Amino acid sequence: MEKNVLKYWGVHDPAIFRDDVTGLYYEYSTGAKCMKSSDLIHWEDVGIVVKKPPKEAVNWTESEEIWAPDIVKVGDEYRLYCSNSSWGVRQSCIFLAVSSSPEGPFEPRGIVIKTTDEMPCNAIDANIIRDQKTGEMYLVYGSFWGGVYLLKLDEETGLAAELSPEDDESCAILIGRSIARRPEWMSSAIEGPYMIYNPDTECYYLFVSYGSLKSDYNIRVARSRNIAGPFLDYKDVDMRTVDDNYNATGYLLFSGYEWNDGTAYMGPGHNSVLRDADGQWYLFCHIREKNFRYEDVPFMMQVRKMFWSTDGWPLLSPEVYAGEMLSVVEGEDLERKLIGIYERIHFQPMLPEGVHVATPMKLCEDHYYENASIQGTWEVVGNRVWIRYGETVEEAVVTPIWDEQLQQESVALTGKSDSGFTFWAKRTKGL
Questions:
Q1: 64 in Cβ contact with 54 (< 8 Å)
Q2: pLDDT tens across 345-361, in order?
Q3: Dmax (CA) of the chain
Q4: pTM, to two decimals
Q5: Structural domains in the chain, sorted by start
Q6: Which tens digit of pLDDT belongs to each residue from 303-330?
Q7: How far apart are CA 27 and CA 320, in angstroms?
Q8: Is the distance from CB of 12 to CB of 83 less than 8 angstroms?
Q9: CA distances from 60 to 68, 92, 114, 157, 178 (A)
Q10: Checking DSSP bridges between strand 355-357 and strand 256-258, what pairing results, if any?
């Protein structure tokens, strides 16, 4: 693996799309930028695919900025939903631009929804999801004020279902259904929603960015049997609750982290998710290095393999994707591979959310487990490891990795406890 090939600088709010015509992957980000790839590792710039927002959008927002696009293909038409706003206001809108190619150019069709500073929501951060039961399409959107909303779309036009394209004055009134919020004393800080459906669990999963882009961004998840919710976290807490004194609502997928060697990262957020044609799952997000200032806009994109626990919650690879595939080695051979010294990062919500650092961990030959002063046992079942200590039981998927910090191939665990806390562990050397 060539050094630094996995760092994609200047990518903010990445949305992933696989084109069924070319088989290529396309990534769209703030600024209406687009990149393409054949392997999710090496990316080529396509350029800016939307020149500027439609005139009616600019008249509304007094801004030509384009943020956080998301794409969907309907028939032969590629539809790009773009946010048009400026920092710190709710005088915003989401507009639709269309093309016959995933590489554009995309031509604006019209405004889907717009909001004002007097409204309880903010029309940015679009994501498109289809109801598996009815086939209907929905827009998921929202940022800070009032949280995240769900709005039904018209399949034919791609615009809001309840309104005709000419009904401009009513657009600001229609906001849809609330599906996630945060307390005002936490700055109401929730945004970047992305919803997926997992046919294996028959659940919709709502991914959101908690916290501030400037400091404590982190990714939380909740799920529901219905597209409109309620979306519940691991402890069955509704994501609309504002009764959260400990920043504990939502299944914390991951946040800022630091291995013992190499770069510390913080502020992962505004993710998108891909289920590839071969059934493999991937998560895309932006993140920044801890020692860079926010004002320098040092965001980069990370791509990680995503797995699922046996009780249906997502788990992320501890390292960025480098082409590794899930190992088919099981049983005694896998046990021998796993014995060694590890670094472990435990993700448990903090107030405010910060950078989680690595602690020492061991998997010993006699099935003895040790993490700092914690002692327990471990066993392999298939391609999973089960760890037990005290009254805690942890499940982890085994995955090969490219260790970016140590520049070597290794093996890693990504798991969760029966209390719903996720963790990463990577093998650094043998015993």
A1: no
A2: 999 999 989 999 999 99
A3: 71
A4: 0.95
A5: 11-316 (2.115.10.20), 331-429 (2.40.128.10)
A6: 999 999 999 999 999 999 999 765 545 5
A7: 16
A8: no
A9: 18, 7, 8, 21, 24
A10: parallel
